[in-house]
Each structure stands twice: as C-alpha cells, then as structure tokens.
Specification:
Elements: H1 2-18, E1 42-44, H2 47-53, H3 57-75, H4 93-209, H5 215-337, H6 341-403, E2 407-409, E3 419-420, H7 422-431
Helix pairs in contact: 1-4, 1-5, 2-3, 2-7, 3-6, 4-5, 6-7
Length: 432
C-alpha cells in the first residue's frame, strides 16, 4: 500500500492539471507524465547479533559448546585394554614387573599421541568446515540481495509501463470527451441562435421602418431586442456551465477510477515481489542447509576414517613395541622358562580376546549414553532457538509498525537501502 501512494497522488495531480478552462474551439489539453512511486521501506535485523546479545544468548552458546564437547567425546574411543603378557613366576619376578611397567608406558604414550593427533586433525577439519559454511552463507546473502534488487527493478519497470499506458488512455478519453462537449455546445448555440433569429430580425426590421417621431416605440423595440439577446446569451451560458460541470464530474470519476486501478496494480506487484523474494530465500536456505548437512557428513566420514587409521596404526605400533618388549623379556628369561613360553602366549591371546570383548561392550554402552545426552541437548537447543526466534519476530514486527516499514528481513540478507533495526529489537528483547 505504501509504495502505491506515490504514483496514485501523482496521477491525481496530473488529472487535475489537464482539466481545461471553459471550452474554446482551438483549445487542447497539455499532456503530462505521472511521477514515479516511492521505494519500499525495508528494515533489516542481524540475527547473529541478536542471538549473541540476547539475555539467554549465553545459555544457547553453552548448549552449543556442550554439544560439540559431547560429539568430540563420542569420537574419542576408550583407552585400549592393557594387556600384560604373563611371565612365569619364580626368579623372573623382577623381569615381569619391569615388562609390565614398560607395557603401560608404551600404551599410555601411544594412546596420548593418538588422541592428540585426532584432536588436532578434528580441529583442522572443523575450521575448514566452518570457513566453507561462512562462504556459503555469504554467497547466499549476496545472491538473495541481487535477486531482490532484480525483482524490485522489474516491478518498477512494470509499474512505469502501466502508468504510461494509463496516462495515454486517460488523455485519449479526456480529449474525446472534450470534443464531445465542444460539439454539444456548438450545436446548442446554433439551435438557440435559430430559435431567436426570426424574432430578432423582426425587431430589427421594425426599428428600421419605425417613424422618427415615435421615440417611445423605438425605445421599446430596442429594449425588447436587447432583452432577447440577453436571454439567448444567458441560455447559451447556462448550457455551457452545465456541460462544464458534467465534464468536471467525468474527470473526477475517471481520475478516481485510474487511481484505484493503479493502486491495485501496484499492490499486486508488491505482493508478487515479496512472494518471489520469499520463495528464492527458501530455496537458498534449503540449498544452504543441504550443503551444510553434506559437509557435516563429509566431516564425520573424514574424521572416522582418520580415527580408524590412527587406531590401526596405534594397534600396530603398540603390538610391535610390546612384542619387542616381550621378546626382550623372554630372551632374558628363556634359559629358565623355555617350557612356559608357549603357555604364556596362549594365555595372553585368551586375555586379549576377553579384554577386547569387554572393551567393545564398554565402548558401546558409553556411545549409547553419550548419544542419549546429545539428543537431549540438541532438543534443548532447538527449543531455545525456537523461543528466541519467536521473541525476535514479535519485537521486529513491533518495531516495523512503529517505524512504518513495509518489509523486515531477518535471515542472511543485506539491503543497501534498508533500515537496520537490530539495536531497537535488542532493546525491546532486554526489556522483556
């Protein structure tokens, strides 16, 4: 409605300016052009600033941080089971103690190095992912801004063309009506002149043949002649005035009709433009969301693949170093415990199998527990974000009404001609 007022008012002034003075045979209206409409008042709200500065923004940030910590904890496996190969007792007790200590050190060192490598790689992947997401968001905002400008330009061009068509039609209708009025006036003047012609000619002849000595008769004839002329001219003048009133009423009717038509057309264009921009924004948001999900999937796949590689390398390193330590211990105790080495190897394999089963079960239970916690936190995050966005929409709508804005754009868009109402929305949110 706001955008249509400019051209409607301009059209009203144009129609009043083209109404002619009392009709004259050679007169014609001077064409004029309609002024352009004023631009849509757009308000923008920086969603990121609002969420950061909201009284509950810290709560949302803490939820997000806790979710990231749980995700990292889920991707970090438990410490592999520590296996200590059995050493035959008796005189090899000191060798066994030294071997156990060395195995613990090997396992702890490899686990710590593996965890550090995994965390560093996860941080690099997360940084790259966030940079890609920011670039996608910037591209989406730029694309939506460009599309909005294009739609606005198309809308203005359509409205301007419509104004020109209406102006040409109005000028043609006014000119046609003016010609009809002039023809009606000329016809009436001719008919009125014919109606009075005989009586005026009769009086003129009487005056020409009147006797000079009959002064009173001459004066009476002159007075009657002038009265008839005045009566004739008055009828013509009254007819002209009536025609002018009808012409002005016709102009007013045509002007109001044109204003209503132009206003309706401008409103339809505005609604269509908003729908197109909103539809394009939804498309861009869906594309952005899909791109983010795809990169999250790729992030998890890369991290899992890297984690699998690290675990495999850690197992191989631990196995090799432990085997080396075991061989050294065995070599030291081989003279006294040659017969018990085979039994110790079988015992170690059984212990490893059992330890691996316990390890897998503990890891499964831990992952399920963390997954439940993660789902609960994600639900809390969604509920809090929906609450904050609902409050933002209410306060943005209130500010838009106070500032008489036509459109308030909240997500991923910058408008060069828009009015930034972020601070006002924040003030309202802090007062809630």
């Amino acid at each position: 409605m706001g955008k249509a007022l400019g051209p409607v008012c301009a059209l009203s002034l144009l129609l009043l300016g083209c109404a002619p003075a009392p009709p004259r045979p050679a007169a014609s209206p001077v064409p004029s052009t309609l002024p352009a409409l004023r631009a849509v008042r757009i308000g923008t709200v920086d969603l990121d600033r609002v969420l950061q500065a909201h009284p509950r923004g810290q709560e949302l940030a803490q939820l997000r941080q806790r979710i990231l910590e749980l995700e990292a904890e889920m991707r970090t496996p438990l410490m592999p089971p520590q296996l200590v190969p059995p050493i035959p007792p008796s005189s090899t007790a000191r060798i066994q103690q030294a071997l156990e200590q060395r195995v613990r050190e090997i396992q702890e060192r490899i686990r710590s190095e593996t965890q550090q490598q995994l965390e560093a790689h996860a941080a690099r992947l997360r940084s790259t992912l966030q940079a890609e997401i920011r670039a996608l968001q910037d591209n989406a905002r730029a694309e939506l801004n460009r599309f909005a400008k294009q739609v606005q330009a198309e809308q203005q061009a359509q409205l301007t063309a419509r104004q020109r068509e209406m102006q040409a039609a109005l000028e043609a209708k006014v000119e046609e009506r003016r010609k009809e009025l002039e023809a009606a006036i000329r016809t009436y003047e001719e008919e009125t002149a014919r109606a009075y012609r005989d009586r005026l000619l009769n009086l003129r002849l009487k005056l020409e043949v009147a006797q000079p000595g009959s002064r009173e008769e001459v004066d009476r004839l002159v007075a009657e002649y002038e009265r008839l002329q005045r009566e004739r001219d008055q009828k013509v003048q009254e007819f002209q005035q009536e025609q002018r009133r009808q012409f002005e009423a016709y102009l007013e009717e045509v002007r109001q009709q044109a204003n209503a038509e132009l206003q309706a057309y401008a409103q339809a264009l505005e609604v269509q433009a908003r729908q197109r921009v909103a539809e394009r924004e939804r498309e861009l948001q869906e594309q952005l969301a899909e791109a983010v999900r795809e990169r999250e999937r790729r992030f998890r796949e890369l991290l899992q693949a890297y984690q699998g590689t690290l675990n495999r390398q850690a197992r191989e390193r631990a196995h090799w170093e432990i085997q080396q330590a075991v061989e050294e211990a065995r070599e030291a105790a081989r003279a006294q415990q040659r017969a018990a080495v085979e039994e110790a190897r079988r015992t170690l394999q059984e212990l490893g199998r059992r330890a691996q089963e316990r390890y897998l079960e503990e890891e499964r239970i831990r992952v399920e527990r963390l997954a439940r916690q993660l789902r609960e936190l994600q639900a809390q995050q969604r509920n809090l974000e929906e609450t904050l966005l609902a409050e933002l929409r209410v306060e943005a709508a209130a500010v838009a009404l106070e500032r008489k804005l036509d459109v308030v754009i909240v997500r991923h868009l910058s408008a060069p001609r828009g009015l930034d109402i972020t601070d006002e929305v924040l003030q309202r949110l802090r007062r809630r």
